[in-house]
Amino acid sequence: PGHGVTAVAHPNIALIKYWGKRDERLMIPYVDSLSMTLDIFPTTTTVRLAPGAPADSLTLDGSPAEGEVRRRVVGFLDLLRERSGRSEPAVVDTHNSVPTGAGLASSASGFAALALAGAAAYGLDPDRTALSRLARRGSASASRSIFGGFAVCHAGRGTGAAADLGSYAEPVPVPDFDPALVIAVVDAGAKAVSSRAAMRRTVETSPLYRAWATSGKTDLAEMRVALRRGDLDAVGEIAERNALGMHATMLTARPAVRYLSPATVAVLDGVLRLRSDGVPAYATMDAGPNVKVLCHPADADRVAEAVRGAAPGCSVFTARRGPGARLTGE
Ligand code: DP6
């Protein structure tokens, strides 16, 4: 058996959210998004080609991958085989460093690492833009984890091949802005509705979806300015309103998709109290009840303490900006 190719990638948290696909097969988002790649919880993935094997063999944290996860990874490997003109099955071994049950398992770090290791294993040599486009086919947020620091993912225009070509992520250079992100895991359980299904339902039925997508354009333009200025208050305010707006679209879907729990709201109240005490802290939430709080690194301990007080029993992690995906010499 040949040597495997190993890649590491980190999760990212969107400050301007992606929610909704205009092409589900090509995984093209409706809206542009912007994120910070984190320095914690990397995913490490090794891909080895297995000529003559009957099928792909996938292991996730030591156990065989099954169901939806297996289906998505095999679909992604099929895309690599189509691109490379090769047909060998692969052996894929993935390790997430997220503490088990932290409710933070990320398809972003997973598909970024798989895209990088898989492309190399199948002899493809994409540049970073092409790699990001490729990772998008696994999970749209994965396109951003190819890059370290801050990255913007373009939704692109048009349909079909043109849309595919136009939808990729690229770095947003902000050398001097290095905030902390305090992550409050208030519920580690699996989500009630997958983000994929929830997005579809939101786009199809929420009367607020279009309005949120439109205001997201202003949010993104203002976010770029705020980042360039290193203005934490402006970055935080824009990120918070963009995330609350995304959840408003879900709450107005039919039937409603509600990821926010009483503990989420308690942490949001804690964040407001911090602000009224003069501590700049701003919240963002994804497709789940956990809250990520943006703050100055010097305030991170105080923010973590406030979050623990607001939601007793939650787990708290502090992240900073992290690196892009990279191959490791095996
Ligand atoms: C709320 O990238 O996980 O975290 O493209 O279907 O794999 P798929 O969805 P995914 O959705 C992320 C949604 C979000 C916001 C964001 O990260 O931009």
Automatic annotation (TrEMBL):
GO terms for cellular component: cytosol. Residues 9-158 form the Diphosphomevalonate decarboxylase-like N-terminal domain. It is an enzyme of class 4 (lyase). One of its GO terms (biological process) is isopentenyl diphosphate biosynthetic process, mevalonate pathway. Keywords: ATP-binding, Lipid biosynthesis, Lipid metabolism, Lyase, Nucleotide-binding. Coiled coil: none annotated. SUPFAM superfamilies: GHMP Kinase, C-terminal domain, Ribosomal protein S5 domain 2-like. One of its GO terms (molecular function) is ATP binding. InterPro entries: GHMP_kinase_C_sf (IPR036554), Mev_decarb (IPR005935), Mev_diP_decarb (IPR029765), MVD-like_N (IPR053859), Mvd1_C (IPR041431), Ribosomal_Su5_D2-typ_SF (IPR020568), Ribsml_uS5_D2-typ_fold_subgr (IPR014721). The keyword Transport does not apply. It holds the Pfam family MDD_C. Its EC number is 4.1.1.33. Residues 182-312 form the Mvd1 C-terminal domain. The keyword Nucleotide-binding applies. Belongs to the diphosphomevalonate decarboxylase family. NCBIfam families: mevDPdecarb. This is diphosphomevalonate decarboxylase. The lineage of its organism: Bacteria, Bacillati, Actinomycetota, Actinomycetes, Kitasatosporales.
